Amino acid sequence: MTLLEKAIDRLPDKGYLNLEIPKGINLVEEINRMRKEKNAIILAHYYQTGDIQDISDFLGDSLQLARAAEKTDADMIVFCGVHFMAETAKILNPTKKVVLPDLLAGCSLADSCSGEGLRELKKKHPNAIVVSYINCDSSVKAESDIIVTSSNAEHIINSLPKEQEIIFAPDRNLGRYINQVTGRNMILWDGACIVHEAFSLERIAQQMLDHPKAKLIAHPEAQKPVLQVAHYIGSTANLLNYVANDDSQEFIVATEEGILHEMRKRAPGKILIPALTIDDTCNCSECHFMKLNTMAKLYLCMKYELPEILMDEEIRLKALRPINKMLEMSKAIK
Ligand code: SF4
């Protein structure tokens, strides 16, 4: 199945795609009104467009959003991110309605791994435990022992016994990086994020020559050669903190471009340069899955409470265990 076929397969009712927005309405006012009326909370990832970030009740990375979803007492969670993130919110909140503005908002990384494939790999390594990055679908979570995010992966892996055999899925770049910083030799699933794999070492090197005072900061989903020359490697939340607190005034940022919106707010006056990608004809450092969500779709999604995330209860319960394990094991992390 192609990525698009998988995404279309997720659509329970394609009718909502034809819904229209009444002429002349103010989207911001309408979204604010419905948020109150419906006791809804809007959770948004840093990779969303600036207008969606600005209207959200809570903005965060995967770990922060999972925690916010766990704590909310809203009746409806409007998740502005991609499908696996909204699914995580549903796993944590089975009695609440969880909606996603565009159900086609998938993820190349999540789609690289299936529960079935992971089951096969587990058969070959019967003594291994499975640690999965949160960027995976519920069938993969259900086959996992612990979920991690890029904010807590190092901490969680370090807290496991040294001799424990570990399968890490689905991101090979993050897995390789965690192997390096923890001295482990985890078995890695061969998946990747199309956005973070698109950065060009050659073009970034030229950017570093052009901006000799700039520090290169990178997300660990980027490929090893980029990470090797980075001044700082961190999760989305850590990259934001680093830029705000470091003395440098100039940064080349090797992660999804949406983060720059919040970075500019937290580090006003600092020069932020998006790292260049292999293809100079496209905005490859923008995640086109994330950018499928728009203010218009957010409005429709809140008005019609569609498309809704629905899930098989048996899978949900299996997927809940490793997520709870992560939330428990990462309590010490801010
Ligand atoms: S940036 Fe990469 S990992 Fe994140 S949602 Fe997009 S494709 Fe998936």
Describe this structure in words.
With 334 residues, this protein is α/β, with parallel strands linked by helices. The chain has helices at residues 3-9, 27-37, 50-55, 62-71, 83-92, 115-124, 138-142, 153-158, 172-182, 201-210, 224-229, 236-245, 259-266, 295-304, 313-329, and strands at residues 40-45, 58-60, 76-80, 97-99, 129-133, 146-148, 166-169, 187-188, 215-218, 232-233, 250-254, 271-274. Strands 2-1-3-4 form a 4-stranded parallel sheet, with helices on both faces. Helix 4 packs parallel to helix 5 (83-92), helix 5 (83-92) packs across helix 15 (313-329) and helix 12 (236-245) packs parallel to helix 13. The protein starts with a helix and ends in a 5-residue tail after the last helix. The mean pLDDT is 93.
Proportion of beta-strand residues: 5-15%
How confident is the prediction overall: mean pLDDT?
A: 93
Overall shape: globular
Bound molecules: iron/sulfur cluster
Name of the level-1 CATH class of the largest domain: Alpha Beta
Count of DSSP strands: 12
The whole-angstrom Rg is 20 Å
Q: Might you state the CATH topology name of the largest domain?
A: Rossmann fold
CA-CA gap between termini: 39 Å
Structural class: alpha/beta
Overall structural domain count: 3
The CATH architecture classification of the largest domain is 3-Layer(aba) Sandwich
Which percent bin holds the helix content? 40-55%
Largest sheet: 4 strands, parallel
CATH homologous superfamily name of the largest domain?
A: NadA-like
SSE arrangement, N to C: HHEHEHEHEHEHEHEHEHEHEHEHEHH
Low-confidence stretches: none
Kindly report the spatial arrangement of strands forming the biggest sheet: 2-1-3-4
